[in-house]
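DEPOSITED CHAIN:
***
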Amino acid sequence: MTLRRIGISVLLLTAGFSLWGQSFSRADSLMRECRFDEALRAYVAGRDDAGADRAQYALGLAEFCAEPHVIARKRFSRRDFFLYYPLEPKAWRNGTAGLAYVPSGSREAYFSAPDKAGSPSIFTSRDQDSLWTAPRMLSEAFVSTGSEVFPMLGKDGKTLYFASDGLAGMGGFDIFSSTWDAEAGRWGDPVNMGFPFNSPADDYLMADSADGEYTLFASGRDCPPDSVTVYVLTYEKSFTRRAVREASALKKLMELAPEADPTRIDNDAAVEGFTTGNATTQRYMKKMEESRALMDSISRHMMPGDTLLNVFRARLALVSAELREVEMSFLMNGAVEAAEDRVVAGAELGYTFAKGSLGPDFKPRFASSETVPSFRIAPVGRFAQDNTLPPGLVYQIMLFDSPVHASLEDIKGLSPVYERLGVNLRYTYLVGLFSSYNDALEYLNVVRVLGFPAARIVAWQDGRAVPARP
């Protein structure tokens, strides 16, 4: 090939990569604008299957949009935004696996920690006086090759919220919920919370306030990379949902603009516990009371032509300015309580965010797992010499099926790999022998990351297939 032809080839290749990148950039931009059908076409044109899946998923979620009552929203740093949630005092703790929410006296904990593949997954453990049980994962429905973070129990104790960037979603982290199935004794499959809680940006940490009045979550939508917006919603057990197909209407819904309804706002949960002896805090509380009273007055004088309306609005503007001045004082000098340092923010919104502080480290003694599963990864995999399964209940991880015998290269260093010939005359390949569902679950992501994304857990009772359940 001549130098001229090589140069032309390089130019064509470079142009191809440029157009490819432009296609992705345009598709991502269309996603942010909620123009999902156009984004889908752009992803397909750019041969981005993952992007096309996100756009297709977003189109489906747009058919079931909730309309929550929004009380307030305020932007905070990603470093400590979670401390502004009105939750149990000092319940956020640093542990060996990272940040965890564990209120004092908790007998059960849910937290995110790296699984055996290194991916953050959801674990749970129970306090048994001197020892906590060995951490266990919930089920394979909660496991992805991405990250699952910020698990939080809801107000009812039967709902678990968490965020994932690996489960089916529309991009970045999405918030999911799961409901406890008391009859089955396990958590149900996670459900994407949909719009407007989720967006093409990162959305996470949904939690109900300690008093049960509010639900909060954080989002990176319309924020710089170092910040998130915390949204405060009126707690609702369930949401009425409807289709919102227009891009402009969907984008407006996701703005989650606070409602001008002071009857929905109660600051007690946010500011309870402030030391009233501090002069600055006393001034702050007094102005907060005045602000709430003025908002109540405004709501009662909304009739056209009411001459008092403008008077109340003007006074509220002055009070809000004074509140912002006090907030700046708190930010500059700190607001000291008897028990902890706290900072307040958002008084001009009618709802007050109060910053808490971290509690003592969460580093309990965990019981160790006594089982040693039959599973390993080596440079060269190994097929089981005897495909007969042992008696009793055993679990395996199913890899794939094939119309022909698999080779050592196909099993990618896994051992022992079992081969079964099905009634459809296809060969099914499974790895390992595990005595419990949880043992198999711990290694599921290891197998998926190795190159078997569709791997799943199966169970056998005396050699016969049975449902695999936690």
Summary: The radius of gyration is 27 Å. The helical segments are 3-32, 36-45, 49-61, 247-255, 268-271, 279-300, 308-333, 437-449. Residues 1-24, 262-277, 334-342 have pLDDT under 50 and may be disordered.
